[in-house]
Amino acid sequence: MGVCLGALFDLFRVLRFFSPGKRILTVVTDILFWNVAIIILFAFVLTVSNGRMRWYVLLGTFCGGFVYISAVSEIVFRVCVSVVFLIKKFLWMITHPVYLVLRWMWRGVKQSYRGRMKKIKERRESVAEKREEQEKEKTQFDA
After folding, report:
1. Diameter of the chain by CA atoms?
2. Residue 12 scores a pLDDT above 60
3. Sign of torsion, CA 97 98 101 106?
4. pLDDT per residue over 29-71, tens digit each?
5. Torsional sign, CA 108, 114, 117, 121
6. How far is the C-alpha of 128 from the C-alpha of 132, rounded, in Å?
């Protein structure tokens, strides 16, 4: 049970490693870890010793966790971080070409929109100039 709880703790460490805002996340993940660990330990005690808390169950859990943390925790953590980096790189290789195509299409749409808006603005200005000229001509004829 101690080894399982140690591995669970390493998963929370990997989550914290890849997340911004480490202080708040550390507090939240520590609280979450201890709640999950208590539930797992309670279920373990219920199934193994018929719900009776024995000192050797706690001692065995502690010893298993200590051996895991001191012997293989750092290796497991580094392997998990490497796997997550590989997954991120693989996902980037898949999504980056799609991102480039979408960005290229968006630039085309944006340029087309800007060109269209420029033409509309020029058209409005020319219509306004024609109206001003017509009003000047009217005032000249009326005078």
Report:
1. 112
2. yes
3. negative
4. 889 999 999 999 888 888 888 878 788 888 888 999 999 999 9
5. negative
6. 6
